[in-house]
Amino acid sequence: MKTSQKKMVFAPLKGLAAVILAVIQVYPIFYVFLSSLKTQEDFRKLPSYAFPSSFQLANYKRVLEVSPIVTYFKNSIIILVFTLAVLLVISSMAGFALAKIKFKRNQFMLNYFMLGLMLPCQVALIPLFTIFSKMGLLNTYAAIILPQVAFALSYSIQLFYSFSKFMPNEIIEAAIIDGCSPLQSYVRIVCPMSTNSLLTVGSMQAVFCWNDFIWANTFIRSSDMKTVTLGINDFVGYMGVTDWGPTFAAIILITIPTFIIYFLTSKYMLAGMTAGAVKG
């Protein structure tokens, strides 16, 4: 079969596969949105895939009135901002130093950081809970921020290292000749050039941080320190009975920021993930 004939045969199949994948990706979001408009009576009488008997926003109003979701959003935003700030500063500086500053045990340090990729966060829950309890850090922002930064450092440093490794040395040398110290070269030269990498790491970790449940559920107990993911439990009542309408409405409100982050930074994420991949 000729190449042109193969293309004619496989083109419809590729289109069909794309449509199927799109439906698989979009349907859960569509289902949650429809469910957020249903009443409790609709959940009892209608099939799960059915449209609500009447479209209303009462569930969203109830979320804002019954649950302190504004407080949960505030806590999640504070954790997100501080996590990203600490992570981006440490990982970008470490990646630049490992790639451009030659010192003894340079490769050993890089491999040491990469060991973090082999360690699942679940194995550290009990030890960290014990340590934070003795240090009085439970029910604090630090109890969530520190583990998230620690477990994100490995892949963040690797990404910044890959970018910095292929940055021309002449640029750094020119900055040093002009009187810049290594720190000034990093701030004035490297940071502006690594915008894609910064946005890639920042957007990836922002989504992980915003959707985090395991750290918050382990280290947070007081209601005024809950994050948005823990706040969904507010709609689970006596004997585990769930008020599904407000629950789905809360899920929609919680996922909106992640969609905004993705759509605003997806182009930069793709560019940052491939930075250095085609250079040699």
TrEMBL record:
Coiled-coil positions: none
Keywords: Cell membrane, Membrane, Transmembrane, Transmembrane helix, Transport
Organism the protein comes from: [Clostridium] citroniae WAL-19142
Protein topology in the membrane: Multi-pass membrane protein
PROSITE patterns cross-referenced by the UniProt entry: ABC_TM1
A single cellular component GO annotation: plasma membrane
Domain ABC transmembrane type-1, first and last residues per copy: 73-265
Family of this protein: Belongs to the binding-protein-dependent transport system permease family.
TM spans (from-to): 12-34, 77-98, 110-132, 138-161, 244-264
Subcellular location as annotated: Cell membrane
UniProt keyword annotation of Cell membrane present: yes
The protein's name: ABC transmembrane type-1 domain-containing protein
One BP term from GO: transmembrane transport
InterPro entries, alphabetized: MetI-like, MetI-like_sf
Lineage, top ranks: Bacteria, Bacillati, Bacillota, Clostridia, Lachnospirales
Primary location: membrane
Record's keyword annotation contains Cell membrane: yes
